[in-house]
């Protein structure tokens, strides 16, 4: 049925109904991201049938591309099937298919009309939407795959053609399975690389791969050589380190370039976080606070004057920021905060009084994003400069984890803040929006530390010999390595999925809770297992794993504890909030 539309012919009967449903289908954000550059026109002037047809042809490209020795007869006159070589880009193929479809159907359909929500067949629309999403995945995979030899003995039928043809069935019929490869003989034609077991890199763009490579090179050359002595002697992250990160564009990577950021996507931010924490959680913590907890609220809730004043300096690392939410008596329950703000109309200032605890970067910060309850009982955010009278930030000494991070307190006694430095957001949604961005980066970062432990443990058990054989020949060792690789690989795919959803505006905070909890919990287990595999050597800081293990104990706790995120997910699953104890137990 769909062949008649894509490959030429007269659209009638069920096919016509399918087209009408397709034209009425709203496109998903992920479809928009792919099709806007492919078609070269604003998406609001592209209807759903055009989008569907273009993507269908793109999928055909992967299944029917002839090799140089193809002897297929030429297409008959009037056939609009797009034959091409694999050297053509996806965009070229899409444009050719689009032009052919215009020539075929311009007398029957209003190309250029905007998408509208219409029709009475939601299952059909869902099927079409699923096919579009499947095609997008195919496009990503094909954009990175090398040309494969043609199989002349296989009759290729595209997934989109088969899937869309099936939606003409009764609504009560079960939907057909979604597959990418219709040639069952070739389902296992790939190879397994233990370094990238689930082909994670194939899901990244060339830009994302380049960003990761650049971040890795910087971290290994500038941060890794310092971390052993910094952790041993509790030498905190400082302005020099932050400026180096800023020069590489690692600070505020998702902030627009007009304000000094790099204008990157959330996946790129996650990849950077993983490379920094591969060295040490202290360094990633400093970067996360700067980017997600300081630059984000100023960009999202600050005035344009505040953005222009602070963001470029923070992006360069010339200024260091911190985020003050946690208090000595209130950690997981920020709604009970005791810090207060009071407006002074005579000076047009807010007066802050209170204290904050366990604040990353506070001893070295130039800028403080502080949250306080105002006279009306609302929680508001304020941007406070370091030299403000009444403000102090002593360092917390003697930490067993994050020893290369400057962690401290914030004391405020009649600290006066200009009214223009109050952030334009009210309630906990302000600080929580910051925390969700930071937790997302933590989910990636923890897996970076976990992978470093995994690789170091693998190297050790391959070299270390006991009882005449490498430790790696032991079944228990191999089981531990398999568990580590599985948890890291699946965790990364979860982070990638949430990152893509964030980029498309389709994520939810609970998704971030899921990946933060999973990554941190699994990373801590991996570090503990890796330490055990090294035996007595595992407690030596020269092997780095013990340091990662200690750090991950803290990472598993901050930005929402492991159990708090479990309660967030539990509330989603049951609809029952369980954060407060029952009255009978109070």
From TrEMBL:
Gene Ontology MF, one: glutaryl-CoA dehydrogenase activity
Keywords for the protein's UniProt record, in alphabetical order: FAD, Flavoprotein, Mitochondrion, Oxidoreductase, Transit peptide
Pathway given in the UniProt record: Amino-acid metabolism; tryptophan metabolism; Amino-acid metabolism; lysine degradation
InterPro entries xref list: Acyl-CoA_DH_CS (IPR006089), Acyl-CoA_Oxase/DH_mid-dom (IPR006091), Acyl-CoA_Oxase/DH_mid-dom_sf (IPR046373), AcylCo_DH-like_C (IPR036250), AcylCo_DH/oxidase_C (IPR009075), AcylCoA_DH/ox_N (IPR013786), AcylCoA_DH/ox_N_sf (IPR037069), AcylCoA_DH/oxidase_NM_dom_sf (IPR009100)
This protein's name: glutaryl-CoA dehydrogenase (ETF)
EC numbers on record: 1.3.8.6
Lipid metabolism recorded as keyword: no
Family membership: Belongs to the acyl-CoA dehydrogenase family.
Domain Acyl-CoA oxidase/dehydrogenase middle positions: 322-415
Ranges of residues in domain Acyl-CoA dehydrogenase/oxidase C-terminal: 432-573
Xref: Pfam families: Acyl-CoA_dh_1, Acyl-CoA_dh_M, Acyl-CoA_dh_N
GO CC, any one term: mitochondrial matrix
Organism of origin: Cyclostephanos tholiformis
Catalytic activity from the UniProt record: glutaryl-CoA + oxidized [electron-transfer flavoprotein] + 2 H(+) = (2E)-butenoyl-CoA + reduced [electron-transfer flavoprotein] + CO2
Cofactor(s) required for function per UniProt: FAD
Domain Acyl-CoA dehydrogenase/oxidase N-terminal, chain residue ranges per copy: 205-318
Enzyme class: oxidoreductase
Coiled coil region boundaries: none
Location of this chain's protein in the cell: Mitochondrion matrix
Region (Disordered) residue spans: 60-86, 146-186
The keyword Lyase is annotated on this UniProt entry: no
């Amino acid at each position: 049925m769909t062949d008649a539309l894509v490959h030429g012919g007269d659209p009638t009967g069920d096919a016509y109904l399918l087209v009408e449903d397709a034209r009425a289908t709203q496109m998903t954000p992920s479809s928009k991201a792919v099709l806007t550059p492919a078609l070269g026109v604003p998406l609001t002037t592209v209807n759903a049938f055009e989008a569907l047809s273009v993507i269908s042809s793109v999928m055909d490209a992967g299944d029917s591309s002839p090799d140089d020795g193809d002897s297929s007869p030429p297409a008959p006159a009037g056939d609009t099937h797009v034959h091409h070589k694999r050297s053509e880009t996806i965009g070229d193929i899409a444009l050719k298919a689009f032009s052919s479809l215009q020539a075929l159907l311009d007398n029957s359909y209003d190309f250029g009309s905007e998408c509208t929500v219409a029709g009475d067949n939601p299952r059909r629309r869902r099927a079409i939407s699923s096919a579009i999403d499947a095609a997008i995945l195919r496009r990503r995979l094909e954009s990175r795959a090398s040309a494969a030899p043609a199989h002349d003995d296989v009759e290729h039928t595209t997934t989109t053609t088969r899937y869309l043809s099936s939606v003409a069935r009764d609504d009560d019929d079960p939907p057909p399975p979604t597959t990418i490869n219709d040639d069952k003989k070739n389902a296992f034609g790939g190879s397994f690389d233990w370094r990238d077991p689930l082909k994670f890199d194939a899901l990244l763009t060339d830009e994302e791969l380049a960003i990761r490579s650049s971040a890795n090179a910087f971290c290994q050359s500038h941060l890794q050589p310092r971390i052993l002595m910094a952790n041993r002697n509790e030498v905190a992250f400082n302005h020099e380190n932050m400026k180096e990160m800023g020069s590489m564009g690692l600070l505020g990577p998702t902030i627009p370039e007009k304000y000094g950021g790099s204008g990157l996507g959330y996946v790129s931010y996650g990849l950077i976080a993983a490379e920094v924490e591969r060295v040490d959680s202290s360094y990633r913590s400093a970067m996360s606070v700067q980017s997600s907890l300081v630059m984000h609220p100023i960009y999202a809730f600050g005035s344009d004057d505040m953005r222009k004043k602070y963001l470029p300096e923070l992006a360069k690392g010339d200024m260091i920021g911190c985020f003050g939410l946690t208090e000595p008596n209130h950690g997981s329950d920020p709604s009970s905060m005791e810090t207060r703000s009071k407006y002074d109309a005579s000076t047009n200032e807010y007066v802050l009084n209170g204290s904050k605890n366990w604040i990353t970067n506070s001893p070295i910060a130039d800028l403080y994003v502080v949250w306080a309850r105002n006279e009306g009982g609302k929680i508001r955010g304020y941007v406070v400069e370091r030299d403000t009278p009444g403000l102090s930030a002593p360092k917390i000494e003697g930490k067993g984890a994050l020893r290369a991070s400057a962690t401290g307190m914030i004391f405020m006694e009649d600290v006066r803040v200009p009214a223009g430095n109050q952030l334009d957001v009210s309630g906990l949604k302000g600080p929580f929006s910051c925390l969700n961005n930071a937790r997302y980066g933590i989910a990636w970062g923890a897996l970076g530390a976990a992978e470093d432990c995994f690789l170091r443990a693998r190297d050790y058990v391959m070299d270390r010999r006991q009882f005449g054989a490498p430790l790696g020949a032991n079944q228990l060792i191999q089981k531990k390595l398999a568990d580590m690789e599985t948890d890291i690989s699946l965790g990364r795919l979860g982070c990638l999925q949430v990152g893509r959803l964030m980029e498309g505006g389709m994520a939810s905070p609970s998704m971030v809770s899921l990946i933060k909890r999973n990554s941190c919990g699994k990373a801590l287990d991996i570090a503990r297992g890796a330490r055990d595999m090294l035996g007595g050597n595992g407690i030596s800081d020269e092997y780095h794993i013990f340091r990662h293990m200690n750090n991950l104990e803290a990472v598993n706790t901050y930005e929402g504890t492991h159990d708090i995120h479990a309660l967030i997910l539990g509330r989603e699953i049951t609809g029952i909030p369980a954060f407060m104890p029952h009255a009978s137990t109070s």
